[in-house]
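User: Hello, beginner here. Can you help me understand these amino acid letters and fold codes? It all follows right here:
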Amino acid sequence: MTAPFNVLFLCTGNSARSILSEAILNREGEGRFRAFSAGSFPKGEVHPAALALLGELGYATAGYRSKSWDEFAAKDAPPLDFIFTVCDNAAGEMCPIWPGKPVTAHWGIEDPAAVEGDGQREAFWQAYLALKRRIDLLLALPLASLDELSLADRLRAIGTTADEEVALG
């Protein structure tokens, strides 16, 4: 694997969590990563609260769209290095065959779009913080010095623990 690494974030609707993840990694990865997002059953539009939060935090909000994961299984799709599912539904679904030999991990986050009313902004903020923390841990990994099995273990640990020492080893 060589940088830039192609990363796909998956959730069912591709309207909130995967979009937030794509935005975070593209900015924080500083060119070392190219992040994409998709859904198994895309909603067709990005959740307005996701775009609002990204805008408040200084992220560019143009160009995000809710799209099918089929775009990333096509022959002309970029070869993928990593795939992260960020919702439990997508993690359990039968996935397409992906180009490349991506390392996969599940980083489940509660769906902020399921929260309505006054608590919705806070739900999106909490989802953002959880995803940002996991992506920060990814960025801290010594990717060049890890074999594929060790890397897969570390990526899974990021999704299942709050303990940075376990994730970073």
Remarks:
- The mean pLDDT is 89.
- The domain at 5-168 is CATH 3.40.50.2300 (Rossmann fold).
